[in-house]
Amino acid sequence: MRSRYRVKEIFYTLQGEGSHAGRPAVFCRFTSCNLWTGRESDRHRAICQFCDTDFVGTDGPGGGRFSSPADLASAIASTWQGKDHARSRPYVVCTGGEPLLQLDAEAVEALHRKGFEVAIETNGTRPAPSGIDWVCVSPKAGADLVLTSGDELKLVFPQPGLDPEQFVELDFTHLRLQPMDGPDLPANTEAAIEYCLAHPQWQLSLQTHKYIGIR
Ligand SMILES: C[S@@+](CC[C@H](N)C(=O)[O-])C[C@H]1O[C@@H](n2cnc3c(N)ncnc32)[C@H](O)[C@@H]1O
Ligand SMILES: Nc1nc2[nH]cc(C(=O)O)c2c(=O)[nH]1
Ligand code: SF4
Ligand SMILES: [Mg+2]
């Protein structure tokens, strides 16, 4: 029980991506992923090779090991910096790494008790506990998708072997294409724009935090 949750970092910023872009949020980045070790020397043999994130260890700002749902929720609540207002609830985005290797119903309940609306960013390869308020699934080529419903499907584009068409009949409210960051970002952005213009059921998601220089 000493380390039920392993967390790389907890920080307060604006959600940069997807339908909630611009919304103030605490990000809780869980350590570890099932599609990459996180070591650069392993990237070429990973299932997911384009990851833009360091999720190894518990050494980031606010990171650590938390022994209970209440401890994790307290750390997240103490990172929220927004003033109380009737029009908004505190918002936490659980990400990683792959948060569904660790996030359980008890943690979600503890966050709700602290007054949080709970969102998740997941690769969709593991089932989600009940109670999460916003589920964003980002499928990865070569990984089986088990989470086939949610609020938002955010496809990193292009991914050889993944055609956006294969996701349109799934049970997601919003469909988003997010250009793959990396050396080909300009061309990937062009391609995503072209795809959305021709297939208006898809909307563009930009990683706005990278453009404005925040975390
Ligand atoms: C770092 S992942 C962590 C959450 C989860 N493991 C996942 O993949 O959804 C957070 C988001 O960043 C996206 N992402 C990761 N690398 C990216 C890249 N190079 N370009 C664009 N989006 C990327 C993921 O697809 C996901 O939507
Ligand atoms: N600002 C900001 N927005 C984000 N949306 C999803 C992120 C993630 O890494 O999961 C992320 C992130 O790392 N930073
Ligand atoms: S599944 Fe998510 S955290 Fe894991 S390597 Fe891919 S983008 Fe990174
Ligand atoms: Mg990120």
UniProtKB/TrEMBL annotation:
GO terms for molecular function: lyase activity. Pathway: Purine metabolism; 7-cyano-7-deazaguanine biosynthesis. Keywords: 4Fe-4S, Iron, Iron-sulfur, Lyase, Magnesium, Metal-binding, Queuosine biosynthesis, S-adenosyl-L-methionine. It is an enzyme of class 4 (lyase). It comes from the Bacteria. Its EC number is 4.3.99.3. Substrate binds at residues 14-16, 29, 95. Binds 1 [4Fe-4S] cluster. The cluster is coordinated with 3 cysteines and an exchangeable S-adenosyl-L-methionine. Binds 1 S-adenosyl-L-methionine per subunit. S-adenosyl-L-methionine binds at residues 50-52, 97, 138-140, 178-181. Residues 20-215 form the Radical SAM core domain. The keyword Nuclease does not apply. [4Fe-4S] cluster binds at residues 33, 48, 51. InterPro entries: 7-CO-7-deazaguanine_synth-like, Aldolase_TIM, QueE_Cx14CxxC, rSAM, rSAM_sf. It catalyses: 6-carboxy-5,6,7,8-tetrahydropterin + H(+) = 7-carboxy-7-carbaguanine + NH4(+). Mg(2+) binds at residue 53. Its cofactor is [4Fe-4S] cluster; S-adenosyl-L-methionine; Mg(2+). Homodimer. NCBIfam families: queE_Cx14CxxC. Belongs to the radical SAM superfamily. 7-carboxy-7-deazaguanine synthase family. Catalyzes the complex heterocyclic radical-mediated conversion of 6-carboxy-5,6,7,8-tetrahydropterin (CPH4) to 7-carboxy-7-deazaguanine (CDG), a step common to the biosynthetic pathways of all 7-deazapurine-containing compounds. This is 7-carboxy-7-deazaguanine synthase. It comes from Planosporangium thailandense. The gene is queE.
